[in-house]
Amino acid sequence: MRCPFCGEEDTKVIDSRSVEGKKKRRRMCTACGKRFTTFESVERPLLMVAKRDGTYEPFNRNKLLAGIFNSTKKRPVRMETVQELVDGIEAELANEMVSTVSPDRIGSMVMERLRDVDMVAYVRFASVYLNFSDVADFIRIISEMTQSPEKFTAQDA
Ligand SMILES: [Zn+2]
User: Structurally, how many domains does the chain consist of?
Assistant: First the structure.
């Protein structure tokens, strides 16, 4: 962090506290001795998604949002609801302080939440995410839906 007074790059943190999700840092310049305050975003560990083919890619919030929006198309699901859903997933992963997560885990975290939001969106998401490769899973989901038809039709009206 460069000193705003003399331009020196070597500054020392003399105090640090969290303010509204940001780090407020009191710094002192090692060259001119002047003090100044900075607000910095709290660095979270970079979350990587460990893909099935053994490669990694950074967790992409927008990609996840797009996937969920795709399944809520023409459904009475508010945009804010989907954003909150993703906020919840991000918060849960941040609290665990994990640095890698599997797509399976993310998928089930979405399904777990989407289930309570909209059954049609839930099944759509599940069909893409699970590829319905496992016929037994598909049958299980459909039978769960028919077991709670009120949930399925209530939001359909
Ligand atoms: Zn300075």
Answer: 2
pTM over 0.70: no
Report if residue 69 sits inside a domain.
yes
Lookup result for tokens 């407020």: 24
How many angstroms separate the alpha carbon of residue 50 from the centre of ligand 1?
44
Q: How far away, in angstroms, is 36 Cα from ligand 1 center?
A: 9
- CA–CA distance from 38 to each of 12, 22, 25, 69, 129 (Å)? 12, 10, 5, 37, 43
- Distance of CA 137 from the midpoint of ligand 1 (Å): 64
Q: Is residue 1 domain-resident?
A: no
If asked whether residues 75 and 144 sit together in one domain, one would say yes
Statement to judge: residues 34 and 88 lie in one domain: no
pLDDT of 102-157, one tens digit each? Answer: 988 999 999 999 999 999 899 889 888 776 556 566 667 667 766 655 555 544 44
Domain that holds residue 30: 11-41
